[in-house]
Amino acid sequence: MTENNDIEAGGSTRVRFRGISPRAYEHPADRGAMATLRAVPGVTSVLKAVAGMWNERAERLFTVASAIRVGDKQYPKINRLRIDCAETLDLDTVPDLFVTRDPNANGYAIGIDRPFILITTGAVEALELEGLRAMIGHETGHILSGHSTLRTLLLRLLRLQATVQWMPLGAIGLRAVIAALLEWFRKAELTADRAGMLCSQDPAAVLRKHVYMAGGTSMSDIDIPSFMQQAKEYEDVDDIRDSFLKLMAVEGMTHPFSVVRAAQVQRWAASEEYRAILAGDYLRREDDQPASSMMDDIKDAGRSYKESWSNSTDPLAKVLNDVGEAVSGGVGKVFSKFGGGGNRDDESNGADGQ
User: What is the model's pTM?
Assistant: First the structure.
């Protein structure tokens, strides 16, 4: 790792974030979904069992045998991006990166003990260099946050699910864990998008990546205001039936829609939080607490959801916001009669992170 605070890459200087904690840029919905995942009965036991059912060495060997390992002599430009992203987020070890044959533009980080990154030939062919930087930074962020472990277990569970469909009770229990993992991973993608922004430090390049992932082939054929209007149109539906259709559409997905992700990360790039991180004002790993209270995580997610609901014209979001206001007001009145002791209870309900 370089000892400089800045990294020279591609003719420009990018800030390096020494010792940055992933919680410094973590999307609050990601934190809340993780708290929900921890609360699912039996999830810890299931994940531990699944972790021991597959040999990680076999997965790595299969990748070595079927994909191109990026290095000084193979995809050297992409190798420079791999190193730059690891330096930007200050990882102790630069993860291995492989290019695998797949026409779909995609990238993912897998592995538990030694996580590594795969990007597809579809992504290499579709994205220019700065778009690839954002993608590799996204996957590097997954590794720094420890997401690759749960993603690996999720992929293994999806394989296992196909073999236990004939066991109703087993399949139902497995589906509950998978559903909770999928909900968490969709939110984790929002955190990783922020990591990609920190590695790129170029909102336009990150936006171009999402445009290509959504179906763009040439930026000359894309009108950015029209593209961003699609996100507003999706978020601001005025028929509650559309709200339920949105919930049903994402139920089995591992990623949020590209247009929605583009809008989310662009809003964050315009925020004070992002500018503060660029200026060096962020939580360091050495100062971070290893485990947070489940109630603290849920409260953070609740604040995030409340803000998005308050700003949304989605009818279901408005209903949930009104219900949430009524419930929180009622709960506040109840606790006030007992001297506000609820906060002390929250602090004693810590849960171990996974």
Answer: 0.72
